Amino acid sequence: MQNKNSKKIVLMFPGQGSQYTGMGRVFLEKNSTFLDYFIKAGDVFGRDIISAVNNSDDRDGLLSDTRYSQMAIYTMSCAINDYLFDSLKVNKSDILCTIGHSLGDYSALYSSGAYEFLQGAEIVSTRGRMMFEASGDNMAMAAVIGLDNDTVRRFIKGYEGRLYIANYNDYFQIVISGYKDDILRASDELKENGARKVIVLNVNTASHCPLMSEMSEKFNSYLRTKTPCFKNIESGFFSSTILRQIEKSEIGDTLVKQLLNPVRWVESIETLAAAGADVFIEVGPGKVLSGLVRRILGKAGYENIDVYSTDPYEEIENIKIN
After folding, report:
1. In this prediction, what percent of the chain has a pLDDT beyond 90?
2. CB 180 within 8 Å of CB 206
3. Are 203 and 138 in contact, with CB atoms under 8 Å apart?
């Protein structure tokens, strides 16, 4: 039961792109028991994840492989999540909900109690493999910075069936997905039409759009075998693609449709702030989500909501929730 004086906490989990070589090194040095998460996830994955994270075998770029990056981010996020509950004594009754950005949905669902760590690792491993197999040199994504959502939406109408909005990350940061040739052509045109920057991302997939339909059908068939194993959601899981909390029976369908639908991050944060969130904590590698949330809250006029990250490790010591 939540104490009337306690704060309502939202735990946020990052997606692909937040990974970097050496991530979590200090955290794991100071909390070596969490290395076991990487060992167990590696057994599921069939490859050494921690070596990829640390580039121990001098294979630069391995962490940019979607199969490795998805498993590494999921594992690191779950480990830090459990550290918050076990060592920092974050009270689960204070969690308003968990939320993920794309891949982050999987660690957010783990945090919410929807499945055990190893089951989630198996699902993420399969998702990463399917996305790797579905990738190709003709697909791409790009971040458009400096244009508002409506302007980008109007612009891509000229690329119907070729380009889609994948992420509404910020009021002036939108990610587009589509065919690589069109991404490159649109990038030049968007800059000519006022975009401050257009950054082609280091991926060869077109996530969160209808071009993922074939892969989503295969993933749906796979998830149907896992549906009976999902547990009741304890802490509340807020889907950033359908903009509401979901129930146990909706988990599989939400994860499948997530591949096809845009991440509506701005609306999600606005909704949670309006629902009374007092604290947002980014759980996992990087600080992208916490940066986005600060800008969204500032623009929306929420001045008394605290935002924290857990990377680097020293940032954890700044978290004040009591």
Report:
1. 88
2. no
3. no
Would you say how long the chain is, in residues?
322
Beta pairing partners, 147: none
The closest of 263, 173, 147, 152 to 212, measured between CA atoms, is 263
- Please report the pLDDT score of residue 61 as a whole number: 75
In this structure, the answer to whether residues 248 and 305 fall within a common structural domain is yes
User: Do 132 and 67 touch, CB atoms closer than 8 A?
Assistant: yes
> 257: buried, middle or exposed (CB in 10 Å: 19+, 13-18, 0-12)?
middle
Domain range enclosing 228 = 9-135+210-318
| CATH number of the domain to which 51 belongs | 3.40.366.10
Residue 221 has, within 13 A of its CA and on its CB side, a CA count of: 6
Which range has the worst mean pLDDT, 52-61, 111-120, 221-230, 266-275? 52-61
Check whether residue 13 and residue 69 sit in a common domain: yes
- Tell me the catalytic residues: 102, 208
Give buried/exposed letters for 100-135 (b at 16+ CB in 10 A, else e): bbbbbbbbbbbbbbbbebebbbbbbbbbbbbbeebb
184: domain CATH number is 3.30.70.250
d(CA 300, CA 319) in angstroms, rounded, equals 23
Model pLDDT, residue 3? 52
Residue where a domain terminates, one of 200, 223, 245:
200
Report helix, strand or coil for 311.
coil
In a shared domain, residues 225 and 98: yes
Same domain (yes/no): 67, 119: yes
Q: Looking at the 3D structure of the chain, how many domains does it have?
A: 2
